[in-house]
């Protein structure tokens, strides 16, 4: 055994007194109790073994487990159980992301508190997870709605306020009319609320933001260390979302205009307007500036006679999602602001337009319009009759050079770009702008600050007090957590403001600084704030002096393997990386990346489509478990294909897996040789005698399964287990028989390998083989390298490239001997049929190709 165990627990398998669903329940209950009694899955954290932290993404308690849970838990548990068999001390905790809208909406419908819905579903899910046999360490269980957790979420927010990383601002926000709350930019999918599908609108609201943009460069640069450890798809999605662009800032001097009464318009004191471009080589191709209508700069630049029209256009723009505004199919609307600027090199007057395809969060909200070399600018110019000035062309090649792009028509103000390549021209233009004090190099990001305010009840209250004298005052640490008042039913219904705003007795408070009357902040925090740090709490869930014990975090972090869906690529994963870096800067954690490796699972579908009540293709997980047993469902999920692929349940056969499990169990039950107590992980590989052929199959299987598990090819590992089962069955029925030591070795290896995928059946096998529980910590079977060498192999014999024969030969056969053997085969002689043999290509010991002259 690889861990200390109480071996007084029941060691015998459950006698088959029942069948079907009752039999499944009897076996499952028995081994769940044994695991709990033995404490098999608890992280020891004693330093005796290498620590490995494994984590599955936070489940939300919206109901009982579904087929998606069945897949991700099965995959995650393969890793957890494999690492334990290797002798590691595994931290594999479980908890719930228990705040959120579903509980609040259910409370409104049922006239109750959201906690009722939440706690009921957590209890239901906990029972189902235990039944599913997932090897979680239940001693570290937590949930985000627990005041002991909420206290530290609020503590974290206060630290962010103190560091200037949390701030309150009025800004256009995404508003879901159905849910009555603000959505982060990332929570809007194709212009709709990702949760309820309602079309999102834009509103100006005062909200809390986190300055994730301060960490934009680090979030990009640190991904270099994740290459090869995270799926490239996820890294690409994060790079795109952060959207780092290198280019130049160009400062355009404002030209004072004249309004309808002849008065000069000095543009609210502004003298220049800055635009960002990723293509400074096109500087001489600028024919207008485009400004986001909902950016503050638009109002500053707008001439008074156009102010009313701008407000109308601004409102129309706010009603559109960012995706809609930038879509290629979107009509290129715009509004001339009555303002002109001067080109920094040519002195030409250029008009300034508001254009809704420009977004306020990108750089300054102002971009250069270069219609000759940008598709959106071209469409905008065509719609509004603006000039188009080409400044790039292709120079034809000659006998010594290829055709190349060059800059043309770009000379003025002491700056000449003509004849340069785009890269050369970009560098020269940027240098010139810096020297003239009219701009210079600039890096911008598409990423926006993280909007964390929510106008809903069931979440952690923002721990801020608003005082007329002191302003925004954080609640002192010793007064945390700020608990929610007792609201329920219709009191939770969305009314455009947070339900907390109506709890007047709760809102009224005193200022922590001056003691005067003050008011609590009535927003709650985005639930992604909770999940941005929960993995750290698991390292020391009972710690009371801080959100986590820093020493425990140093021992366990980073998470060695994180398992979850790709849908969280630019939400939870990005936020978790940001918060980890902040905590690192605070000196609380040593790591800068929370998750060393990431495994994404695919979606479970049915009949080629996502499961849906409206489509009538939903599959009830509980019914599947009752019909086939937990092990058969788990094995079906793992065997369906690579983890990242979608699983179509309609194309799978849990019944066949159930029959396979019966066959492999009978292998263990048929073994008649006595059990030998030994620690598998330290046993001498050559200690077991018996049938040499079966031993080679067993050791080759363990070797191959190890390689498959190390590369997350779990389905391949299952296939190899099936092959070993067949070999062991043949040895029992038509080979050396059930008493042969090699048969016992094969059966014991099967039990250990199968424990990763079908834990209940594996425990039954281990008990039938005479061992004390639990097989989960028996230790990984050793492999004798000498048994991996193949004594014979199959050589393919070809004639003119076509396979004509196959022959078993010694693995160490030489080329001359193999050629002689091949040419002497009857099938080869017939294929040659008297033609002259030109040459024989030999690749010992696998291939011989006889080449003839026809």
From TrEMBL:
It catalyses: tRNA(Leu) + L-leucine + ATP = L-leucyl-tRNA(Leu) + AMP + diphosphate. Residues 692-809 form the Methionyl/Valyl/Leucyl/Isoleucyl-tRNA synthetase anticodon-binding domain. It is found in: Cytoplasm. Residues 1-24 are annotated as: Disordered. Its main location: cytoplasm. A motif ('HIGH' region) lies at residues 59-69. Pfam families: Anticodon_1, tRNA-synt_1, tRNA-synt_1_2, tRNA-synt_1g. It comes from the Bacteria. Residues 239-402 form the Leucyl-tRNA synthetase editing domain. Residues 443-647 form the Aminoacyl-tRNA synthetase class Ia domain. Residues 1-12 have a biased composition (Low complexity). HAMAP family: Leu_tRNA_synth_B. Belongs to the class-I aminoacyl-tRNA synthetase family. NCBIfam families: leuS_bact (TIGR00396). PANTHER family: LEUCINE--TRNA LIGASE, MITOCHONDRIAL, LEUCYL-TRNA SYNTHETASE. This is Leucine--tRNA ligase. It comes from Oerskovia rustica. The gene is leuS.
